[in-house]
Write a structure and sequence with these properties.
This protein has 70 residues and is mostly beta strands. The chain contains one helix and six strands; from the N terminus they run ββαββββ. The longest helix has 10 residues.
Length: 70
């Protein structure tokens, strides 16, 4: 199992942590889809405030934001 994870932070303060081997794939889905199914959760991407990524290969948390869709 991977130790890499994406934590999705929603408007209003709730968050969802997803453990995955495919961080780039998850990020691409979050940026490109209106609704995403992750670990049995249906995520409405327009309600995401930001997400953070933890990859043990970098030995630190790397925080990224979801850009506005045009």
């Amino acid at each position: 199992m991977s130790d890499s994870s994406v934590t999705i932070h929603f408007v209003g303060g709730e968050s969802l942590n997803i453990i995955t081997d495919d961080i780039p794939g998850v990020i691409a889905m979050l940026k490109g889809e209106e609704w995403v199914e992750l670990s049995e959760h249906h995520v409405k991407t327009s309600s995401i405030s930001f997400f953070s990524v933890y990859d043990p290969g970098f030995n630190k948390n790397s925080e990224r934001t979801v850009p506005e869709r045009g």
